[in-house]
Amino acid sequence: MFPYKTSIYLDKSVKEPLYLQLSNQLILLIREGQLTSGTKLIGSRQLAELLGIHRKTVVASYEELALQGWVESIPKKGTFVHNNLPNLYQKRKERESVVKEKSGFSFYTSSILKAKKAFKVEEIIYLNDGTSDTRLTPLDEIARTYRRVASKKSTYKHLDYGSTYGNNGLREILVSYLNSTRGLKVAKENLLITRGSQMGMWLSAQLLLKEKDVIVVGTTNYASADITFKNTKATLKRVGVDQCGIQTNEIELLCKTTQIKAVYVTSHHHHPTTVTLSAERRMHLLQLSKKHGFAIIEDDYDYDFNYNHAPILPLASHDTSGNVIYVGSVCKTVAPVFRIGYLIASKDFVDEAAKLRGYIDRQGDALLELTFAEFIKSGDLDRHIRKVLRVYQQRRDLFCKLLKEELGDYFSFEIPKGGMAIWTQLNKKYTWKQVQEEARKHNLEVGDYTRYDMAKTNHNSMRIGFASYTENEIYELINRLKTTMKSITKKL
Amino acid sequence: MFPYKTSIYLDKSVKEPLYLQLSNQLILLIREGQLTSGTKLIGSRQLAELLGIHRKTVVASYEELALQGWVESIPKKGTFVHNNLPNLYQKRKERESVVKEKSGFSFYTSSILKAKKAFKVEEIIYLNDGTSDTRLTPLDEIARTYRRVASKKSTYKHLDYGSTYGNNGLREILVSYLNSTRGLKVAKENLLITRGSQMGMWLSAQLLLKEKDVIVVGTTNYASADITFKNTKATLKRVGVDQCGIQTNEIELLCKTTQIKAVYVTSHHHHPTTVTLSAERRMHLLQLSKKHGFAIIEDDYDYDFNYNHAPILPLASHDTSGNVIYVGSVCKTVAPVFRIGYLIASKDFVDEAAKLRGYIDRQGDALLELTFAEFIKSGDLDRHIRKVLRVYQQRRDLFCKLLKEELGDYFSFEIPKGGMAIWTQLNKKYTWKQVQEEARKHNLEVGDYTRYDMAKTNHNSMRIGFASYTENEIYELINRLKTTMKSITKKL
C-alpha cells in the first residue's frame, strides 16, 4: 500500500482547514506521479485512522478532489485517481518556499538600468540627486484628509472602476491651480492625471517614438528620460547645453537634415546642470516646434522651488499651437510616495494617452486623488510650499557657503537659482571614482555619478542635492567630504 | 505710446501678487509681438500712476522681467525689451481657459479601445462585467489603518523614493498569504507588487511579445487581455473553449507548426464564460509549456469567489519549471480603487519586470502598501472575503433563479460555480443590439456586449454580473429585462 501516513503531514495549528490540507497534499502526490492514474485511493475510514483525524474530514477531502477533477468516485468500488491525467513525474521538492530563479521561457531584456542597491548602515550619509526632505512632509494633514474623504457617504461611488483620466474633481482643481500658478490657459480636457512625471514621460515616449524616430535631448540630460526614450528604440540626438540652457541653434541646424519627432527639455532648471532656459531660447524653440511640427516634452519637475525670483512660466504657457506636452507632479513638492502627476497637452494627445494608460494600470487611486484635491483647495499645498521654500533656501545658502569655503580647491559650481541640487564640477586632478571609493571609508556614499554623463563627455561633474539635509547634517556631510578629499590628495 | 492702461488688467482679489500679474501680462504682450524687441518700456513711476498701483510694484515687476531675460535695464537709459527675442506674432487669445483640441505634431494612435461613456441618469441600472459591490468595501477600516500607518514615526522613511518591487513588508506578507491560500511555494524575490492585474498583464506582454511573436488565447477571451497583447503587435492565435476550459489539445497541435511565446489563461473561471479549467487540461498545459518553452500567463482574477467548493489551486502552484507568470490583485476582492496587485514568476523575469515598471510609474504607493500589509496581517481581508462570499452566493442564487423562472424563454446559462458573473446566451431569435436599444427605453443599460466576441464567432452570449446588486436591485433588474424582452417579442 502507498505510504499515506509518512507522505502526508497535517498541521492543526494553521488556519487552513484539515480537509483542504489533505486534499492539497493528495493533489501534490498525484501530480508528482506518486499516486498514478487509475490508482485506487485507500478507504476513507482507514485513512482517517492512519492520520488520526475524523472520517468526515477525509470524505470532505475526497469530495473536494472529485469536484476538482483529480479523482473519480465509482459507487461500491471506491475512489480512483482520474484516468486522463497526463503523467508529469517530477522530483518532489521541499515544502518550504524557495526562490524560483529561472524562467522556462525566453523574454526580452532591455537596456533599462537596474536600480542600484542602497547601503544598509544607518550612519552613512547618502548624496542624492536633489530630493526633498520627507521629514517635512505634512503627512498627518494628508492622512487626516484621506480619512475624512473616505468617511464621506458620497465617496463610495469612487471605489469602483473609474475614469482612466483620473478623478474629475482633482482634474478641475489642478487645472485651475496650474492655470493660476503657471500661466497656463488650459481646460480639464487637456489634463490627464498620471502617477508622477515619469508616467507622463513614459506615455509620451510610447505615443511619439518608434524605431528610427528622432528625439533631441541635451548632451547632459536626465538619465531616466534618456532611458525611457531609448527603450522605445528611437534615436537620441544630443545638442549642447550652456549657461542659457539647451542650445536651440543646434536644434535649428538639425532640423535642416533630420525630421525631429520631439525635443525633451527641463526648461525651468535643466537636469542635471540646474541652468534656466533663457527667454530667447524659449521663444526660439517654440517657433521651431511650430515650423517643423515636433513635440516639446517639457518636464517641469521642480517648478515650485525658486529662491531668487518668482518661477519662470513654462513653455507650455506660451504654446498656442499645441506643440508642448507638459509633465509635472507633486512628488518633488510633497513627497515621492504620493504618486500624483499630470500630463497636459492638446485634447487629441491626452485622449490617446488616457487610452494607453488604461491598459497599463487601468486608472489612478481616486481616494488619493480626492485627498489631494482637498489638499490643494484648502490652501495646504501653498502653505507647505512656502514653508519648505524658506527651509530649502537656507540649506542651499549654507551648503554653497561651506562647499565654497571648505572645499573650494576641489569643487567648482554656480549657486543654483532654484531646485534642490547643485551642479558640482570636480577638479580635473581627481575622478569621482576616487571620491566614491575613498568616501565610503568615511561613511559617505556618493551614489551613481555615471548617470550624469550618459553621453560620456567627461565633464567630471555631478549633481548633489542639498534640500534633504538639516543644517547639522550639512556640516557633517561637508566634513566627511573634506576628510575624503584630503585623504585622496595625500595619496596623489 | 503703447496703450498700457487698456492692455493690462490687474485683479487685487486674486492670490497672485500684483507684481507677478503685471510681469506675466507684460510677458504676454512681448511674446505676442505687441511690445517688440528693442521697445523702451514706460517709466515705472508713470506706469504706476496709469494703473493706480504703487511704484515699488512696477519696479519689482521690471526686475522680475529682467531676471527672466525678457527685458534689459540700461542704467540712466531705461528698460528695454530684449533685442534677441525672436518675433513670434500671435493673435491674442482670450484669457479664459479653453480646450486645446489639436496637437501640432504627429503621434501614433493605437488599436486600444476608448472606454465607453457612461450614462448619467441616476435611476438607470447598468449591467456590468462582474464587479464587486463597492458598498460592502470595509472602507472605514482601511482608512483608519492608513492613518495609523501614517502616524507611525517609522513611516517617514517610506515617503522617499522606494523599491520598484513594492514595499518589502507587503511583499513578505503577500507571499506568505498567497503561499498558504493558493498552494504556492514562492519567495519574496518572486513577487512584484503591481497596480492591479492589468499592470501584471501589461508588463508581461511588453517583456514577452514583439511583432510576429505568437500568443495563444481562447476564442472567447477577456477583451482587455486581447487588446493588451495586440498592442505589442504580436499575433493572437485563438483556440476553442468548452465546458472544461481552454482546449489544450488545440494548443498541442499548434505547437507542431508554430513557435508559441505565451498562452493566456483565466484558469479558475474562464473570462468571459466562467468555466473552470479541468485538472487534466491543467497538467497538459503545464506539460506543453515545459516541453515547448512557452510562458503561461495565468490571470487569477477572482480566486476568492467560489461557492460550490474550495478554490482550485492555480496552475502556478504546480509549476516547477518556471513557466507560469501568475497575476492577481485585491481589486476584485476589496474594491477596484485600491490598485494593488501582484505578478509572481521566476526571479529573472520578476527582476526584468521590476526594471520596466520603474520607467512606467517609478514605484507603487508605499503608504497604501503598508496599509494593505496590516489589513492582511490582522485577518481583516479574510473576514471581508468570508462576509462578501456569503452575500454574493445569495445574490447568485437569486439572480439565477429569477433569470431561469422569469426569462428562461429568452436566455440560457449554466449556474456559475464561482466568480461574480453569469455567461448568458441570448435566444438566437434575438440580438443583443435589439436588447440594448429596447432596454434603454426601460432605464436598463446593457453596455458594450461586443467585447465578449472579439473573435466574431456570433455566439450571441454576454457576461452579466450579479454581485454588485442587492436583492431588491436584482428583482428590479430582472423586471426591466423582462419588460424589455416582452416589448421586443411583440414587435417581432
From TrEMBL, chains A, B:
GO MF terms held by the record: DNA binding; DNA-binding transcription factor activity; pyridoxal phosphate binding
Cross-referenced CDD domains: AAT_like, WHTH_GntR
InterPro entries: Aminotransferase_I/II_large, HTH_trans_reg/aminotransferase, PyrdxlP-dep_Trfase, PyrdxlP-dep_Trfase_major, Tscrpt_reg_HTH_GntR, WH-like_DNA-bd_sf, WH_DNA-bd_sf
Keyword Disulfide bond assigned: no
Keyword DNA-binding: yes
Signal peptide: none
Superkingdom assignment: Bacteria
Domain annotation HTH gntR-type: ranges: 16-84
Keywords assigned: DNA-binding, Pyridoxal phosphate, Transcription, Transcription regulation
SUPFAM superfamilies assigned: PLP-dependent transferases (SSF53383), Winged helix' DNA-binding domain (SSF46785)
Family statement drawn from the similarity comment of this UniProt entry: In the C-terminal section; belongs to the class-I pyridoxal-phosphate-dependent aminotransferase family.
PANTHER family: HTH-TYPE TRANSCRIPTIONAL REGULATORY PROTEIN GABR, TRANSCRIPTIONAL REGULATORY PROTEIN
Protein name: HTH gntR-type domain-containing protein
Organism of this sequence: Tenacibaculum holothuriorum
Biological classification of the source: Bacteria, Pseudomonadati, Bacteroidota, Flavobacteriia, Flavobacteriales
